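Standup notes
- DV: blocked on the single-chain target, sequence here:
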Amino acid sequence: MEQNSHHCGAAMFGGRGPAKLCEPLARLQLEHGPLREQMNAFAREAAEIGQDGGITDWSGRLAELKRKVDAFVSELDPHSEREEGTLFPLMAKYIGRETGPIAVMEYEHDLAKANLKKFREAVEQLEGAVDAERAKDIASYAIQAHAVLTEHFMKEENVLFPMAENILNEEEKAELGRAVGLA
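- DV (later): unblocked, structure below
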């Protein structure tokens, strides 16, 4: 009966537990794991910035943190593009884009990206020694991005992806499958 690798069985969504996600949605959700690990690692490091009273110049620690954030962004960007470029438009046909879940998801993407950009730009513009207070201010952008994305991933996993499972038809799931690299 299962002719299409993107075919998804009946979802068990509706208060009875998590929905069984089709392969493309499961792939998007699976991508959250490594992203979450990278994000948690840079957030722990960002939280330590400015804490050691013996350090008088935090520019080196901020530069190291920026390398980790850059690596994270290089993984996050293709993931969010698959969502913004394919998943969100497919869902918007059914639930709209101006208000509701898609509007929230896009806002959170923009907010997280803005915080990551502010952090990266602030580090790039540093000249000379950076004291603890300035270093904390700069690191706070990375911490804010982490907070937004932590909540965002949970919303996608618990609300958006199960909703997509229920509203997208097989053709749309196949289109999403192509977008996430499933042929």
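- Follow-up: The chain has five helices and no strands.
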